[in-house]
Amino acid sequence: MAVRILIEKGPDQGKALELDARAEMRIGRGPGNHLMVQDPTWQGALRVSFSQGVCKVTNQTTTTIYLGGKVFPPGEQRAWFHGESLQPTAQSLLVLYVEDAARVAGEAKRGGGSRKAMQLTVIFLCVLVAGLLSISPTAPPGTEELRTPEQKRRAYQRLETQLQEMQERADGTGMAKRVPILLREARFEQVRAHPAQAFKLYHRVREEMEMDLGTPEQPRALPDEVAELLRRVRNYVNQQLIELGPEARKQSV
Fold first, then answer.
1. Where would I find the beta strands (DSSP E) of 102-253?
2. Which of 30, 98, 166, 252 has its CA 20 to 30 A from that of 51?
3. pTM of the model
């Protein structure tokens, strides 16, 4: 098995780590890590191991992160599956790829030693996967780097308008009726600088998203346009939860 972790979004985009089945590896800032990152918001490390066909990751960062779009609290260990995304900060996104080593070698041989072409193919596939988790000013909201208050305001307004339009159309299928209300309340508390209240409300929005979208293994049957919009909302909410987490914990102490 060839097992690789690729950083496909953020300040360290393009960096990769090939896992060794004989040892546990660490991803984080500083020289003590097998894959050193420059993301200034990254705190702590991820411990990753691969044995008997299973990749396991332990969250040793100081904040709640997201694996496969689901909450991954500090100190916990989870199985990390092929093609699944891991978001340790609002900026960085990692994807795990597990490839049959023999097939990869055969493809490289047929390509006349075109290892570089193989790497570009892997990167291209990663970008496709990340497209479902990201927004940009010219693409569906989700990957936009929401660093400034103005960027956050624009992203929120786009989502609110699109949710309203979805509910006004017949193809809304009655889904996510509570989402616009909860999203509006969360945004209001965030603007008022009440991180703990905003965090709780954003978390409730995310729970609604999970109910509406279903699990990756058993997704709910939704029109493509509706499902895509709900994923955009979930991605926006994930970014806010990551950002608000540290302040929310301070207030709760």
1. none
2. 30
3. 0.43
Rounded to whole angstroms, how far apart are CA atoms 169 and 24?
A: 51
Query: For 215-226, how does the pLDDT look when each residue is reduced to its tens digit (9 = 90+)?
Result: 666 677 778 888
Residue reference for tokens 């995304």: 85
Q: Which residues contact 28 (CB under 8 A, 6 or more apart)?
A: 35, 36, 37, 42, 44, 45, 46, 60, 61
For residue 252, count CB atoms less than 10 angstroms from its CB and return exposed for 0-12, middle for 13-18, buried for 19 or more. exposed
Sequence-distant (≥ 6) Cβ neighbours of residue 109 within 8 angstroms: none
**Token representation of residue 212:** 């509406």
- Enter the tokens of residue 120: 């570009």
Any idea which fold 2-133 has?
Tumour Suppressor Smad4 (2.60.200)
> What are the residue boundaries of the structural domains of the chain, listed by start?
2-133, 149-252
Residues 70/205/229/130 CA torsion (nearest 10 deg): -20
- Range 220-236 average pLDDT: 82
List all residues 6 or more positions away from 172 whose beta carbon is below 8 Å from its beta carbon: 166, 226
CA-based torsion, 91, 232, 99, 113: positive or negative? negative
Bridge partners (DSSP) listed for residue 98: 3
- Which amino acid would we find at residue 79? A
